[in-house]
Amino acid sequence: MQLFSLAGRVALVTGSSRGLGLGMARGLAEAGAKVVLNGRDPVALSAAVASLDGADSEAFDATDEAATAAGIAAIAARHGRLDILVANAGTHGAMPLPDWRTADWERVLRANLTASFFAAQQAAIPMVKQRHGRIIFTGSLTGSRGRPTIHGYAASKGALAAVARTLAVELGEHGITVNTLAPGYFETEMSTLLRQNAEFFERMTARIPLHRWGQPEDLAGIAVFLASQAGAYITGQQIFIDGGLSAAL
Predict the structure, then answer these.
(1) pLDDT digit string (tens) for the chain, length 249 residues
(2) At what angle do helices 115-130 and 65-79 cross, to 10 degrees?
(3) Is residue 224 assigned to a domain?
(4) CB–CB of 160/180 below 8 Å?
(5) Which residues form the domain of 16?
(6) How far is CA 87 from CA 15, 26, 149, 212, 231, in A?
(7) Which of 19, 12, 14 is CA-nearest to residue 34?
(8) Number of domains comprising the chain
(9) Alpha helix (H) ranges present in 131-216?
(10) Domain membership flag for residue 9
């Protein structure tokens, strides 16, 4: 369907050598976009590119603002445009309240919040010139629902949704939409330790109305929707992809 086609569009997905980022990149590619994968690990990035027909890559550390600016400028120059940014790169952090230190807090916020903001800042440059763009942040259910020990992570993801709203208001006049995806519990490398805790895994699975954890491909459809003409009138929103967990009592 033309409404969902991304033919002729160029998409950058940060942190896409594996996990949720790679799942969304696959969806965008299947919808016709020219996808640029990003990551810091050249071996993992090469493997991801090899697994995705026609994919391009741009290796840079998303937490390095200068490297991000240079990488995004290079993509726009190489492909003549940049239509879609999925700011997905990030990290996790969990520890009891007394153990958190300033360095721990700043590490998590820099990777999840600051890096995404400055990626959006740089991506907006070609998008404003084109008068078209789609910016999608990877937030989290835990940015709106509490869970012990993940204080910095929850703060960064909650703030990301707020940033998306401010950008949506500022960039709307240029034909750019900005939205946040809020995944619940997904089976990725990042959630390995959680899933190895049998008691936690079983308890959380029982609470999810669909009675399963998400797979990376479960984000592909919503990413395509928001990136395509079908989602052209949706901006400033946070959308939960959590198997119904946020709706459950």
Answers:
(1) 799 999 999 999 999 999 999 999 999 999 999 999 999 999 999 999 999 999 999 999 999 999 999 999 999 999 999 999 999 999 999 999 999 999 999 999 999 999 999 999 999 999 999 999 999 999 999 999 989 999 999 999 999 999 999 999 999 999 999 999 999 999 998 888 889 999 999 999 999 999 999 999 999 999 999 999 999 999 999 999 999 999 996
(2) 30
(3) yes
(4) yes
(5) 2-239
(6) 8, 15, 24, 26, 18
(7) 12
(8) 1
(9) 151-171, 192-196, 198-207
(10) yes
Is pTM beyond 0.70 here?
yes
| Residue 84, SS3 per DSSP | strand
- Structural contact between residues 12 and 62, judged by C-beta atoms closer than 8 angstroms: no
Query: Active site residue: 117, 118, 153, 240, which one?
Result: 153
For this structure, is 153 an active site residue? yes
Q: Is the dihedral of CA 149, 156, 61, 9 positive or negative?
A: positive
Residue 245 lies in a domain: no
Determine the Cα–Cα distance for residues 211 and 217; give it in Å rounded to an integer. Answer: 17
Cα 211 to Cα 154, 205, 236, distances in angstroms: 23, 5, 29
CA dist 227 and 47 (Å) reads: 25
- DSSP one-letter code for 89: -
Question: Which uninterrupted H or E stretch holds 24?
Answer: helix 19-30
Among residues 192, 210, 193, the alpha carbon closest in space to that of 248 is found at: 210
Give the H or E element holding residue 125: helix 115-130
CATH number for the domain including 194?
A: 3.40.50.720
Residue whose token pair is 């026609």: 54
Residue with tokens 């998400």: 214
